[in-house]
Amino acid sequence: MYTSKLNVLETQKAIKLVKDTFERELAKALSLTRVSAPLFVKPETGLNDNLNGYERAVNFDILELKQDVEIVQSLAKWKRMALSKYGFSVGEGLYTDMNAIRRDESLDAIHSVYVDQWDWEKRIEKKDRRLSYLKNTVKKIYKALLKTAKVVEAKYPMLKSSLPNEITFLSTKELESLYPNLTRKERENQIAKEKKAVFLYGIGWPLKDKMPHDGRAADYDDWKLNGDLLLWFEELNIAFEISSMGIRVDEISLPKQLKKKKELSKLENPYCKGIMDRSLPLTIGGGIGQSRLCMYFLKKVHIGEVQTSVWGEEYLQKLKEEGIELL
Questions:
Q1: Is 292 a catalytic residue?
Q2: How far apart are CA 232 and CA 321, in angstroms?
Q3: 241 included as an active-site residue
Q4: What is the mean pLDDT of residues 61-73?
Q5: How far apart are CA 90 and CA 263, in angstroms?
Q6: Which pTM does this prediction carry?
Q7: Is 216 a catalytic residue?
C-alpha cells in the first residue's frame, strides 16, 4: 500500500515551498515580471485557446453585460497581447498564475478538472526564431528545476531528486526513428526512463504515418519550434509532462498551420489579424504545471494530493483503500 512521505499538513507547507522557490527561479532565469491575468474572456476576441480542438470551454452569461464569456483554457494568446499592451521590451517577459476548468478532461492520477499552471511569455526578435534559442530557453527553465530540487531536498531529505545535471533534446522525428514500432506514449516513456529529463520538440506536423506526435492548436506555437518538457516519474513509472512551450507563430507559419487544420476562418479574429499585420510582437512562451511540479518534487502518486478538485465517490473510496489521501 502507498504511504506518502509527508502528511497532509506537511504537504501543504511543502507545496508552498516548491511553488515559491520555482516561481522565483523561473522569473530570474527568463527576466519575467509577474502580472495579473483574466479568468474569463469574450469568445469573439479569439483569445481563448481551443487546445486540441475538441475540448469545450466553460461559459456563462454576465447579467449586466447581457453577454456570454468563457473561462480561459490557457493564456497563450492573451499573454502575447499583454506583452504589447504593457510595453515590454525585447528580452523581457511576464508570468502569471493561470487557473482553468477543463470540463472534458479524462480524470486519473495526473489529470484533474482543475488546472493550475504558471503561464509565461517573453518578447523576442526575428533572429531568435530558431531552434537554438528554444533550446537555450529550455536549459534555463531546467536549471530553475534543479535549483528547486536542491531547496526541497535540503528541507525534506527523504525527497531526494533524481534529476540529471543536463536535459536531453530530441525531435519527434528522431524519437519515431528510435522506436518505430511503439505508440507515441510508449516512445515518450521509453526515452524518459532512459534519459530522466527530455525536451521533445517539433510537435504538430505529421510524422511518417501522416499523424502528428500529439495534437497542437494551430494558432499559437510554431510546430517546428515547440515542444514538451518530460521528466521520468518513478512513482508512477511514466514520462511526466510538466511543460508545453514554444516559439509562437508568425505571419508565415500561422496561415500554414491553420490551413493544415482547416481553420483559415480564424484569420478574421483580432488575435490572428494582429499576427498577420505584425502589430503583435514576436514571442516565446509556455505553461508549467504547478500541481504536476509539486507531485514530482513531493513524490505524490495522485494530483489530488497536491490540489483540491472534485472526484467521484467510488473513485475516492478506491483511492482511500490504496492509502491515497486527497486534499
A1: no
A2: 26
A3: yes
A4: 87
A5: 30
A6: 0.92
A7: no
